Amino acid sequence: MPRRTSRTLLDRLRTPGRLSGFLKSASVCVLVAALLSPLAQTTATAAASNDYCGGQCSDILPPGENGNATLAQVLLNQAFGTQPDHAEDQLGPYANLAKGYPTLTNSTINTFFNDASFGVASDQVASTEKPANRSDVTIVRDKKTGVPHITGTTRYGTEFGAGYAAAEDRLWLMDVFRHVGRGQLTAFAGGAASNQGLEQQFWRNAPYSEADLQAQIDNAVASNGARGQQALADANAYLAGINSYIDASDSGRYFPGEYVLTGHKDSVTNAGTIDHFKITDLVALASVIGALFGSGGGGEVNNAISLLAAQQQYGVAKGTAVWESFRERNDPEAALTVHNGESFPYATKPAAAQGQAMPDTGSVSTEPLVYDASGTGADQSASAASATATANALTSARRGMSNALVVSGKYTASGHPVAVFGPQTGYFAPQLLMLQEIQGPGISARGASFAGLSMYVELGRGQDYAWSATTSGQDIIDSYAVELCQDDYHYLYHGTCTAMDKIEQKNTWAPTTADGTAAGSYTMRVYRTKYGPVEYRATVGGKKVAYTTLRSSYMHEADSIIGFQMLNDPDYVKSPQTFQSAVQHINYTFNWFYADSTHTAYYNSGNNPVRAAGVDAEFPVWAQAAYDWKNWDPATNTADYTPASAHPNSIDQDYYISWNNKQALDYSAASWGDGSVHRGNLLEDRVKKLVAAGGVTRASLVKAMADASLTDLRAEDVLPDLLKVVNSSTVTDSTAAAAVTKLQAWLTAGGKRTETSAGSKAYADADAVRILDAWWPLLVQAEFSPGLGSNLYTAFQANLSVDESPSAAHGPTGAHAGSSFQFGWWSYVDKDIRSVLGESVQGPLTDKYCGGGSLSACRDILISTLKTASGKTAAQVYPGDDLCSAGDQWCADSIVQRTLGGIKHYNISWQNRPTFQQVVEFTSHR
Fold first, then answer.
1. Dist. CA 426–CA 431, nearest whole Å
2. Contact yes or no for 572/566 (Cβ under 8 A)
């Protein structure tokens, strides 16, 4: 039975060890038998809807559709590792692609994916249900995966069914995340340090009161006419379905067992309540998802700190040039999604910056979030979790939601476009996303939706088209310096001394069966201005200021519902143009992709504010009217936004790739690292070759994705030049020579992190992988720290981490998260090493850093660090954690479904690919 990784809300639940204190093994079995009360289910035939995919649409979402488990099922899983039906049946096919893709054909795709055709064949119907005995909606579940296929004869009934099915599959998870969004997770699920960190990370950036949440609903409805009214009606019907299931499962005593284990329900008397969902909960949920995946920007204060460090190191002129070369705002060698040469200028560097409010050196301090902490809210683990949460909340390095490979029909074997795409949203148990099919008046779609927001399919397919998204990360967040007056909690707003709003959330917790963390408490407190929440304090020219962050989607978390409603409407989306029109209504920062039987399309969404002339989006500016967003209204946080035509967009380009890379020429991303080497290159190089050869198929495009998903970016795109330097003369040191031989052999084999054979849990070329993992941070420091100086080198690391190998921690998801190589210094190393080699470099760094530009000195540095790396043992490189023993390389990389409930799953071999993924090729069109 696999052990779990980090200690989340149920990580203290260890059976039989953890439960033996109050239930002996025998009594576990007795209790399980008493609790098992299977519901009677009937079998029926589900009629297929209009489907123009011809059996060529597929999808996958591990670990499984069923994310609910009764107390009996939780106890069985904890004690014996048994799984509820459909809780884990998509994990194996997903994992098996890593070794199965080389021999993949179109006919074997569904060995690794689900058939995503509309409807369920009569012999594949597992159950048919009329939720709450309604006559206007039916939920059919298929035998293979248990996915709900919801068919309604009325709009209300359809949405009621969607809510009911969501609660059947994800009730506990939905409850967890509505509490995360409200900053109330610890009080609800326990005070584990990871729970503290999770609620702090999200509440810092979206500290909404109940009135704030309701105002966002009112605004979204009032601003969108008939569609707004329909969205409200849909949401209310959806909520009614959720609450109907809560009532039914409560009275029938088949609700998720986590409610018992966290103390909300009594397993004997059934005392306790499961709170009904209300419409403001949907906004709280949306704020979490938007913050995780759709809110590009921020980081301006860190940018200012590193710029000042560069200017101190080199002087103002050269320091600025050095900073700009590392920033890579518009690197000419960056991989692009729109690669036809079209330019979409946004957030570009102004000729003469206006209104900058740069902090005095050494004056910046992070605004506290936690006050009055006691017990386990104040211990060392809590402090560490809080520090990590703060760093994640304030960084511009938003974690990727990716990827996409889309090829025009001009280059495919069938003449129809082919797409392989999906979101990389981490791995959880239950999964954040859920699969469903919804068919009803004005809705016809199948795909994935975030649990609790599944009144519409958010990523999936319609009758004759499919769509997906990746995180784009363009800058919709700005930092403002508000000058303080009177005291630290008043500021000047357009010349008037104004009090900051104080928003608080007080949480207390006590140990439960699920989370034995001792009692504790704290208060989260945010001071909010008209320019957004306060994130830092500093002085500027000796004046005391607070730095705030203003996000264009702040107070507008509900607005995107209109775009998703349109995507599900077969009478709205009929072409690439109408698809682009639909996603223009989504205010979060995403890259959207589309394919039907004839056309492909792309559009970059988000409310991109029109900044005042001369404002540089990279740095904080004064909170003064002259530097406000154009026509900004602080009461509603609305402004003028760049027109749709100014967003990167395209129809029928030869191919599109996206892995959170740069969208188009002159379109600046908020995060650092869009340079010559990016994980997007792993897709670009493979798809470009396929298109050049022609005859692309679904299988060949899946192969390209899968091959990239196992490749070490550093090995494929940087290691060859490193070895050029090392081998520029004969390597005489035996240790270094042996390491070079191993690295070269690995490179020749493809530079992949892959098992020797399926299930071996050991890497081919394991020594080479270990050497590169150990070498990379050593060589980066030896290459750049001497020239940059330790202060600037450290400051740049705050802007962009040096490495993101598979075994590294990954933001809020912790280690074992799959997604890798999004952020790192590979572009800097690549450009610098090529410069030292005398090769052509477009957009080079201002200086040559490795060995001061001397090839021989650079070679000495590389060989010295390579020898050190080669001598590091596997236990030193992979120190182990509560899942993996020290030195277990495969396990260190492996993917874990991070537990958010009581059901655990086995870890799988590393892949760098979307969590939910579609493979589509439509054969005809309406």
1. 8
2. yes
| Angstrom distance (rounded) from CA 429 to CA 903 | 7
Tell me the C-alpha distance between 556 and 559, whole Å: 5
Q: What is the mean pLDDT of each run of 10 residues along the chain (926 residues)?
A: 33 32 33 38 47 97 97 96 97 98 98 97 97 98 98 98 98 96 95 91 91 95 96 98 98 97 96 97 91 81 97 97 97 97 96 97 96 93 82 64 92 98 93 97 98 97 97 94 98 97 97 95 97 97 97 94 98 98 96 98 98 97 98 97 98 97 92 94 98 98 98 98 98 97 98 97 98 98 98 96 85 75 95 98 98 98 98 96 95 95 97 97 96
Q: Is 312 exposed, middle or buried (0-12, 13-18, 19+ CB in 10 A)?
A: middle
Q: Which two tokens stand for residue 61?
A: 């979402």
What DSSP string describes 302-317?
HHHHHHHHHHHHH-HH
Residues 713/826, Cβ–Cβ less than 8 Å: yes
Q: Is the previous residue joined to 430 through a cis bond, with omega within 30 degrees of 0?
A: yes
> What does residue 264 show for φ and ψ, rounded to 5 degrees?
-85, -25
**Where do runs of H (alpha helix) occur along 315-423?**
316-327, 380-394
Count other C-beta atoms under 10 Å from residue 867's C-beta: 17
Give whole-number Cα distances, 104 to 682, 760, 800, 809, in Å: 19, 21, 37, 32
The letter for the amino acid at 724 is: K
In this structure, are residues 583 and 472 in contact, taking their beta carbons and an 8 Å threshold?
A: no
Quick check: 520 and 509 in contact, CB under 8 A?
A: yes
Contact status, residue 433 vs residue 358, Cβ threshold 8 Å? no
Query: What span, in angstroms and rounded, lies between the C-alpha atoms of 897 and 899?
Result: 6
Q: Measure the CA–CA gap between 857 and 865, rounded to whole angstroms.
A: 12
* pLDDT tens-place string over residues 687-725: 999 999 999 999 999 999 999 999 999 999 999 999 999
423, 402 contact by CB (below 8 A)? yes
- Name the maximum alpha-carbon separation found in the chain: 81
Question: Is-above-0.90 flag for pTM?
Answer: yes
